[in-house]
Amino acid sequence: MSLLSGDDGMAMSKVVRDLVAGPLSSHQLLLVTDDEAENLLDVGWILASLGPLAPPSVFSTSNSLLHIHYPTSHIRGPLLATIFVFHNDPNTFLDLLQTNQEWNPKYLVLFCLNDDVNTTRVISQPLVQRSERILMLQMVTVNEKLSFKTYTSLPMQVNSRGKKLVKTPLGTWRPERPTTLESIFPSRFDSFGGIILQLSSWCDDTPFLYYKDGQCTGENIDALTIISHKYNFTFYVQDKPADERWDSKENGSWVGLMAGLMYEGKHLAPNAMLLNEENRREFDYTYPYQTEGFSFLHRMPPPLPQWKNLLYPFTTTMWVAVLASTMLVVILLVFLLHVVQHLHDPISFALKVVAGLLHQSVDMREVRASWARVWLAWWWVSVIIVLSAYTSNLIAVLTVPVYPKTIQTVEELAAHSTRVMMLDYGNFVPGALKTSSHPALAALGHKLELMPYDSDAMYDHIFQRMEAGGYAFLEFSSYLFYLQKHYNFTAVSYIMNSQIYSSLLVWFLPRNTPYTPLFSHALMHLREAGILSHLFSQHLRTTIKRQDKNKAASGGGQLKVKQLQGAFILWVLGLTAAALTLLLEFLIRYY
After folding, report:
1. 148-187 b/e with 16+ CB inside 10 Å = b?
2. Does residue 199 sit within a domain?
3. Contact assessment for residue 506 and residue 286, using Cβ atoms and an 8 Å cutoff
4. For the segment 480-501, what is each residue's pLDDT rounded down to a tens digit?
5. Residues 180 and 319 in one domain
6. Integer Cα distance of 109 and 151 in angstroms
7. Fewest CB within 10 angstroms: 276, 299, 553, 565, which?
8. Which residues partner with 274 through β-bridges?
9. 584 located within any domain
10. pTM higher than the cut 0.90
């Protein structure tokens, strides 16, 4: 073991001071020392020499650090730099600290004060490799002169002999040279050295991952391919998880895609998975690249009877308003004119005013009072507006079927007799619904039926049940849209406006993966450039089969009798009323 003098301790203190005052000047500082280094390092002199430039700092010994809890956002944040100064072999301490899953400083400086310590083993420690940026300084003595060698770690790259560059030299620390944060913390993952990343994936996630011509493709596969070309890696796509489960936690253990990351050594899960409170605590994740949720697919209810087509352009309230205003105008006008100018036939005049609703004209010579003419002029202007609205809406009603009000909110669905189906593939939604504190969501959870995920015919069975009525289908929104198109169910179904558990789509990685920020930034750039939205639309269009059958009814075309049967019914009613009137007149005249 090296014996250090007071001058050596001052030299080490100056190096720490130069780091803090230079490239780390904009960062808060966490300084950790072992017992030997605590005696050698002059922390008081470091702070005094910095003066007002001293950053907010926390000092701790290695033993104390094991028992102190620091907020995750602080330890892993970009504003904190951690300097660990050690004289003795720190591997036992690092092994103990490794159980703390929150320990993952972005900027980590390892300062070794003993050239007898195997620093290659230290920098290879899994705990050390969690950090995104690593700088190691190792004290060396050459010709009785003290100097400090600097290293970083490039674990994905190899040298000409095929050896991994776990400990890569950067040169000798020279305080007289200007240094920047980037120069002492070079990117560790500019190249992955051609390694093969193992994906925890499921190629049944249209349009994100799906099979086409025997190959797994999709929006996320294309995005990952672009990233792989930039960072020099390839990837192996898993067809589906062995347990055919998605991403939930069952009996305290993760299943499906998350189990691949947690227990099977997979590197990345690129499927469309929502970020929630549970998975964000136990896994790394990228910046969100899209928002999604879960939606409900319903069968359209039968259209309303077509013999009522003449009534559908207006609501009941509108019909009441039109009839009431017409009666009020006619009765008041006829009464006032009869008082003022003594109408010879008030009933005939009233019928002529009402006829204005049918675009029938009225001889204004019968109305001599100026105020009455103004009254009628404004009344007919209002009538023209109402008739135009009725005629325009009637055209639409006659050519497109009118449906009753559909279920559009989770509250309406919870109160309705419709039951809900969902495939049982290990998603978190069924459990979340049943334990939800929201009354409507809890009610949906209790009437949710999980269908077995067992064969390609499972969707045929689901759509047959929906065809029979009484069921809604719950699924991921994008995938539900694809299924609706793929199974020619668009014309007879609709997707509810309300979504549940709408959240952010991210890619997941194992906890404390040092290259998580690299994938985050890459996805962000693809999103900002519009590439992800283009890929999403392209793959969604590719997977939707164009079908001519069961297309929704559209405007135009020849009108059929059943569409105008209301007019014929009205005509028959008119003929019946005329016949009854004729019979009544005949009886009055001759009897």
Report:
1. bbbbbbbbbbeeeeeeebbbbebeebeeeeebebeebbee
2. no
3. yes
4. 998 988 888 888 899 998 899 9
5. no
6. 10
7. 553
8. 505
9. yes
10. no
| pLDDT, greater one: 157 or 342 | 157
Report yes or no: 584 and 428 within 8 Å, Cβ to Cβ: no
**What stretches of 289-340 adopt beta strand conformation (E)?**
290-299
Domain range holding 581? 562-590
Kindly tell me the sign of the dihedral angle through the C-alpha atoms of 433, 434, 436, 438. Answer: positive
Alpha-carbon torsion, ordered 514, 519, 522, 528, to 10 deg: -120
Does position 227 have pLDDT exceeding 90, yes or no?
yes
Query: Under a CB-based contact definition with an 8 Å cutoff, are residues 307 and 506 in contact?
Result: no
Q: How far is CA 526 from CA 220, 290, 514, in A?
A: 11, 12, 21
336 belongs to a structural domain = yes
Check pLDDT > 60 for residue 557: no
* pLDDT value at residue 500: 93
Range name among 84-93, 369-378, 534-543 with the lowest pLDDT average: 369-378
Out of 364, 393, 422, a domain closes at: 393
In 3D space, the residue among 58, 51, 68, 66 whose CA is nearest the CA of residue 29 turns out to be 58
10 Å Cβ neighbour count for 311?
A: 15
Model pLDDT, residue 366: 65
In angstroms, the Cα distances linking 41 to 262, 277, 305 are: 40, 42, 90
What's the domain count of the chain? 3
Q: With CA atoms as reference, report the closest residue to 402 among 512, 315, 511, 514.
A: 315
Tokens of 98: 């490794």
The residues near 281 (Cβ < 8 Å, ≥ 6 apart) are: none
Residue 292 placed within a domain: no
Chain center to CA of 488: 26
Q: b or e along 79-118 (b: 16 or more beta carbons within 10 Å of the residue's beta carbon)?
A: ebbbbbbbbbbbbebbeebeeeeebbbbbbbbbbbbeebe
User: So what's the pLDDT on residue 549?
Assistant: 40
Q: At which of 355, 373, 393 does a domain end? A: 393
Please report which helix (H) or strand (E) contains residue 549, including its range. none
Helix orientation angle between 370-399 and 316-341, rounded to the nearest 10 degrees: 160
Counting other chains too, the contacts that 434-443 makes at CB distance below 8 Å and 24 or more residues apart are: 439/414, 440/410, 440/411, 440/413, 440/414, 441/410, 441/414, 441/500, 443/414, 443/415
Percent composition of the chain: helix, strand, coil (DSSP 3-state, to 5): 45, 20, 35
Rounded-to-integer distance, Cα 534 and Cα 213, Å: 21
pLDDT of residue 125: 95
Residue 442 near residue 436, CB atoms below 8 Å: yes
* Mean pLDDT, rounded, of the chain: 84
